[in-house]
Amino acid sequence: MENGETTPEGAARETWEEAKARVSNLELYRIFDVPYISQVYMFYRCDLDKGEFGVGPESLESALYAEDEIPWETIAFPSVHEVLKDYFQDEKDGQYPVRVSAIERRPRAPK
Question: What are 33's strand-pairing partners?
């Protein structure tokens, strides 16, 4: 978030910066506490205005995927992996409860 913006405003701005997409009707969907790096991640569900998106100034590429097309093995962040899994299950159920969970530090693999 930037100074003076709400979390939905920050989410909309980040969506523009990452995917050159304008969004509306933002609804809080997931909150992740990440205490080992003193961060909180908030994910919103929203409408993609005009269905338009692209490569924003902070991205190399962007795309929309059906569930069976997602390259699960290349998702870098555990929070993104988890929120996508939850979303597709919630989509089947037709309900989108707000969930709060924590992401703990993963142990490092031995060298």
Answer: 40, 102
Non-local (6+) Cβ contacts of 26 within 8 A are 8, 11, 12, 44, 45, 46
| Claim: this prediction has a pTM higher than 0.85 | yes
Write out the two tokens for 53. 């998106």
What is residue 108's predicted lDDT score, i.e. its pLDDT? 65
**Between 29 and 76, the higher pLDDT residue:** 29
How many CB atoms lie under 10 A from the CB of residue 53?
Answer: 19
Domain 7-102 has CATH 1.20.1540.10: no
C-alpha dihedral, 7 to 12 to 15 to 17, nearest 10°: -100
pLDDT at position 90 over 90: yes
Q: Look at the block and give the residue holding tokens 């998702």.
A: 75
Q: How far apart are the first and last CA of the chain?
A: 37
